[in-house]
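Support case: magnesium ion complex. Customer-provided input:
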Amino acid sequence: MANSKYEYVRHFEKHDSCLPNCWIIVRVDGKAFHRFADAHAFTKPNDVNGIKLMTRCAHNVMTEFTEMVLAYGQSDEYSFVFKKETQAYKRRESKLMTNVASLFASSYVFHWPEFFPNVKLLYPPSFDGRVVIYPSDQNLRDYLSWRQADCHINNLYNTAFWALVQEGGLSNKEAQTRLSGTFSSNKNEILFSEFGINYNQEPEILKKGTILLRKEIAEEVTITDHKTKEPKSVTKVRKKIEAVNCDLIGDTFWVEHPYLLNTVG
Ligand code: DGT
Ligand code: MG
Ligand code: MG
Ligand code: MG
Ligand code: MG
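Agent response - structure generated as follows:
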């Protein structure tokens, strides 16, 4: 079609391609989830169905965006890591961010009844999005370590806080005062000596959050042989998105999954 005289307005659009050769992270975070969690009677401090629903949504996002190597989620947030050399949406920041955030939000509503069959969704939840680019592998690891450390710090605090309130009978204000200025060791001690909770034995999903990655799975499948027409067994390698709840701060995770950082090719 011939250009119209209005075409020039396109030049007002911002060029927002992410820098080449950098890791691209899209992080989504629930808008006002404090209120959302209360309105839908989420278990405090952690609602396992809520966590599973978040991971279900992230699984959808990773299925759609095949150039994502990994995702990490905790609380009401998920971070998605695109491989360095991705050309998805010509690396345009706004396209990547809005597509991820909107697919995540629609998935949340779509899958809600599977995880909360008896809870009516009272209003449409929304998620903000941001893009951060990291030039080095170390930056990427530090970013993910930062989010996992945040998960641990918040979870320890929240576990202690709600134990003091729900089991210890303190008011919210009293629990807050009790924990103010305490170190991790103090919170561990309160949990253990007053409530018999060994924090180290709390579920990994709560302490570490969730990592989604693509694993290569070798499968034995039976096919019909071309020539003989006889059934035969062959090994097929396929990629499967898998959820793990382990430490990603130390080296072990990265040594066990070397292909995550080495995505070129
Ligand atoms: P924002 O992100 O600035 O719009 O505001 P919020 O309220 O989403 O704050 P944020 O993202 O810093 O913190 C997440 C909130 O979500 C936190 O206040 C507690 C709530 N939340 C997340 N997961 C759970 C859960 O499993 N159970 C309960 N009860 N609340 C949760
Ligand atoms: Mg939030
Ligand atoms: Mg906030
Ligand atoms: Mg948050
Ligand atoms: Mg269009």
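Residues 160 and 190 are 7 Å apart (CA to CA).

Case will auto-close in a few days if no follow-up is received.
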